[in-house]
Structures are given as C-alpha cells and as structure tokens.
Write a structure and sequence with these properties.
Oligomer: single chain
CATH class: Alpha Beta
Number of strands: 10
Order of helices and strands: EHEHHEEHEHEHEEHEHEHH
Number of domains: 1
Structural class: alpha/beta
CATH architecture: 3-Layer(aba) Sandwich
Length: 328
C-alpha cells in the first residue's frame, strides 16, 4: 500500500510551555520511532501549506478564529482554558495542521496514495465551533470531513475516533449532518474529560442516528474493547457504507498513558487499523486518512503510532492473514 505521511518541523514551533502534556516531544518521538523502524523510507512524504482561513470559517465562528489570531499575535499563553496553551506562532501552525490534513485528503482522492497518516499538532477533536478545549484550536478532522463533502461532493464520510477522550468538538460541529457519521469509542464521561459522549447522545435534527458514542468503563481491556468494536462500531460503519474513512487516532487508550484509565496495548491499535482498512477496502476503495490526536506517554505513543502506520502500509493479503491469526 502507498501510505502518505504529513509532517513538518514547523509543528514543533507550537510551544505549549514546560510540563504541558501536548508538547513538541510527542512528534519527535514518533518521527524517531519511524526512523528506527525504517518506516520513513516506506512512507510518501506529502507537501503542504497552511489552509486558507476561509476553509476554517466553514465550521468555526469568525469571532473565535479572530480571537485565536489576536491572542497569538499578542503572545498570550492560553486561550479559553489553562489546557489550551498557545504561543505567538500557534495560529499559523494550527492553519498549517489543517492544510496538511487537507493535502492528505487531496492525495488520496487523486489516487496518488491509498491512505495517509498525519502527524500534526495542535490536535483538533476537542475544538468547538466558538472555543478552544483540550489542547485543540481548530477541528482538523471535522474540517477534513466537510472538505470531502464540499470539495469532492461525497455523500457519506465516516469518522472513527478511538482517542480515549470523547471528541466533543467533532460531535457538536457535525451532529446535525446525515452525510457524516461520527463514531466515538472513549472512556466513560463520568470518569474522564471532557464529560461528554454518553450513549444517549446520537445526533440531532437531520443528523439523528449519525452519531454513535461507545463509552467504556475504567480498566477496559483488549478483549472487552474489541468486542464493543466488532459488535457495535463495525455494524454501524458497514451499514453507513462510507465513501471515505477518517480516523481520529489518539493513542491515549494505551495502558501506559498517564491521562486515562483504559488498558489497550500496541497490538490493539494494529487490530483496529486493520479492521478499518478491511471496511475501507469493501466500501471506499481503501481511502483512509488518519490524524494524530492524543497520546502522552512518549514511548507508548511512538510504539502505538508505529504499529498503526505499519498496518496502514500492510498489503491487504497481510490484513486478512492477521485477522485469521487473531481469531477476530
């Protein structure tokens, strides 16, 4: 498989300050791991630039976007909450992250690559219409889904978010749309930030039924997670018959992550990725773009991201063999 890779050293400029979990070292750890495993030699590096602000304004409030730009220009340290740290260059870097994701979408739609992994920051799935939350400024994945429906006229785009924290921003930006299915697997909102993503949240108005939340109890292990994924997430995805699959790839459901309480291992992220590839092969010519979200233990993050990308790179025959070996 030809797998694209979106990364740029400029993402490191987004300075969140000492001790912040969402730090530049996260990307450095991933890039170093890819180099150690020679994955960088197999990936197709994609060229990209910042997205035009008009694209961001399709989903985000103009006053909010202006507020982010102004706060950064004034070199403020935070916006909206102490979680969302910024620096003077953060506005431009956030636009660059969106631009990288859209470039990956373009490359997949053009048939230049089969799928892509976007190692971008700041992450996006907590960003709401008019405010920053949870380290996120602009909602990269929601903007990518909107781009696919607007630019390419797709009628069914699926988002699968396996970050351990509920993707509240993605849900709220898209919950009234029947053309975008949003599936979230996350730790239960009663025990983890941001406190949203209950099972009864399933969309509204025309989007009723196009949001699926699968909250998981603290301590959920591999077998339990896979059962939920197979019995609830996959049937919903398959019934939707997506024309494109987007992944909010947070690796903080790992048992080693310091900010959550699930018990997944790297092999689980390999398994999840291969399952989604299998669905993509059936419904949308293998078209997948995956975006980095969370993951805050550097060793675990790098290892999980590596197995995720190795699975994206794998030949479809290897995927089928792996499914047979695992028994799932």
């Amino acid at each position: 498989m030809r797998t694209g890779f979106v990364y740029d050293d400029r993402f490191l400029i987004h300075d969140t300050g000492p001790g912040h979990p969402e730090r530049a070292d996260r990307l450095l750890a991933i890039v170093e791991k890819f180099s150690q495993l020679h994955l960088d030699e197999q990936l197709v590096r994609l060229a990209f630039e910042a997205a035009p602000v008009e694209r961001v304004l399709r989903l985000h409030d103009p006053a909010y976007v202006e507020r982010v730009e102004t706060a950064c220009r004034m070199d403020k340290r935070f916006i909206d909450s102490d979680d969302s740290a910024i620096c003077e260059q953060s506005y431009e870097i956030a636009l660059l992250a969106v631009g990288g994701v859209l470039a990956a979408v373009d490359a997949v739609m053009a048939g230049e690559i089969h799928n892509a992994f976007c190692a971008v920051r700041p992450p996006g799935h907590h960003a709401e219409h008019d405010r920053s939350m949870g380290f996120c400024l602009f909602n990269n994945i929601a903007l990518a889904a909107d781009y696919l429906t607007d630019r390419y006229g797709l009628e069914r785009v699926a988002i699968i978010d396996f970050d351990v924290h509920h993707g509240n921003g993605t849900q709220h930006l898209l919950e009234d749309r029947p053309d975008i299915l949003v599936i979230n697997l996350h730790e239960h909102p009663m025990s983890l930030y941001p406190g949203t993503g209950f099972a009864y949240e399933h969309g509204k108005d025309a989007g009723e039924g196009y949001t699926l939340n699968l909250p998981l109890q603290e301590g959920t292990c591999s077998a339990e997670y896979r059962q939920v994924f197979l019995q609830k997430a996959m049937p919903k995805l398959e019934a939707f018959e997506p024309e494109f699959i987007l992944i909010s790839a947070g690796f903080d459901a790992s048992k080693d992550d310091p900010l959550a309480h699930l018990e997944l291992t790297p092999s689980d992220f390999d398994w999840i990725t291969r399952r989604l590839k299998q669905a993509a092969a059936i419904f949308c010519e293998g078209r997948i773009v995956s975006l980095l979200e969370g993951g805050y233990d550097l060793r675990s993050l790098a290892e999980c991201a590596a197995v995720h990308v190795q699975a994206l790179l794998a030949d479809p025959d290897d995927d089928r063999l792996m499914m047979m070996k695992t028994g799932f």
